[in-house]
Write a structure and sequence with these properties.
About 40% of the residues lie in helices and about 15% in strands. By secondary structure, it is α/β, with parallel strands linked by helices. α12 (about 230-245) packs parallel to α13 (about 275-290).
Length: about 375
């Protein structure tokens, strides 16, 4: 089975008609349930549910504390390479962009690792563009070997791999996968990916499940908000996370709700997603998946990120840099996108404590 079969059930669903039929009682009933159905979740993503964000927030806070405690896990991204063969219209790394391209040498990687490790962080996410020629699996594997000296948890956000390749990286020390479908609407997906291997919708869609079968510990997925109508994209993201959690109960499943940010050769969002929209999405997801993680990156600004600490967030990035070699400053390349929250790890630690929560630098040790 594949999540694609779940997607096809709702591919032609009339979201507007469904939203127009909802009543206040339907929203309150969904909020009051201990276990939500797929359509309950969709109801909480509706325009009518905007009138009940306070009730949703109270329950989301209670569920998050119940299942996760008052903690925020901190991590940071590390870009290994920005070579890419895709033509994604929303990305600064796309192949036709005239930017400085770079791949870290192993010596440069170790220098970056030492800087990050000096902040106390033990969780790291490594990223590349999609170029098997410039950043093949063998290169990523060597990088993981170096990073294991400094970090206890290593996640990857790279091009989709075969199950055997995921297994190879897991054996090398990778324990987490982040991969965004970018947009679940299949027609829009083909529009925004006009050329390159990323145009293969199904291969990307099934990547998280291949990693689960290979033995990954955690999977983080999501849609890039701004490419299509956000309510349906949030719905499919939730269904995808729920599908994986039900089929692979030993895997930690989480979602990210990234919004489009300015980037080199920038393309404006097709759809504007407001702060209020983003909050509604996070609250609805928490009520639908009480045990699902919610990752908030530095794409979002400081004030909003602080508000999300008590509304369902479980993991946040800090001290982020989207340029290859950006922390050591040696031959820094063009970043993938502009970040909104530039606070370092120490500053984020103080902020989390100020809200009555505990920052967590390490919650996993591979053997």
């Amino acid at each position: 089975m594949s999540f694609y079969e779940v997607y096809r059930r709702f591919k032609d669903f009339d979201f507007t008609f469904f939203f127009n039929q909802l009543t206040d009682s339907d929203i309150l009933r969904a909020i009051g349930k201990s276990r939500l159905s797929e359509l309950d979740y969709l109801a909480l993503l509706s325009p009518r549910a905007e009138n009940y964000l306070e009730e949703m927030a109270q329950k989301a806070h209670h569920l998050t504390v119940q299942h996760f405690g008052k903690v925020i896990l901190l991590y940071t991204p590390l870009y290994l390479a920005n070579y890419c063969v895709n033509s994604c219209v929303y990305c600064g790394f796309r192949v036709k962009n005239d930017i400085e391209r770079k791949i870290l040498s192993f010596e440069e990687l170790e220098a970056e690792a030492r800087v990050i490790a000096g902040t106390g962080l033990k969780h790291i996410l490594i990223l590349t563009g999609e170029s098997r020629k410039h950043s093949p699996v063998a290169y990523i594997k060597e990088c993981v070997g170096i990073l294991r000296k400094y970090f206890t948890s290593i996640g990857i956000e790279v091009y989709p791999l075969d199950e055997e390749e995921y297994a190879e990286l897991i054996s090398a020390g990778v324990d987490g996968l982040t991969i965004y479908q970018e947009v679940y609407d299949e027609d829009v997906y083909l529009e925004v990916h006009p050329a390159g291997p990323k145009r293969n919708y199904r291969f990307r869609l099934d990547a998280p499940e291949r990693a689960c079968r290979a033995g990954i510990r955690s999977v983080n997925l999501g849609a890039l908000l701004g490419l299509h109508e956000w309510r349906s994209e949030a719905f499919f993201t939730g269904l995808h996370a729920n599908y994986l959690q039900n089929r692979y109960p030993d895997v930690e499943v989480s979602m990210s709700p990234p919004r489009m940010r300015p980037h080199a050769g920038g393309t404006a969002p097709r759809v504007v997603v407001s702060d209020k929209n983003l909050v509604q999405y996070i609250l609805a997801f928490r009520l639908f998946m009480p045990r699902g993680g919610i990752t908030i990156s530095t794409r979002e600004g400081p004030e909003l990120r602080e508000h999300l600490i008590k509304l369902g967030a479980t993991k946040m990035s800090a001290g982020s840099c989207t340029a290859v070699g950006g922390r050591t400053g040696a031959e820094k390349s063009t970043g993938q996108f502009d970040i909104s929250d530039e606070r370092d790890v120490a500053a984020m630690t103080r902020v989390i404590y100020s809200h009555g929560y505990q920052p967590v630098f390490k919650d996993w040790q591979s053997i």
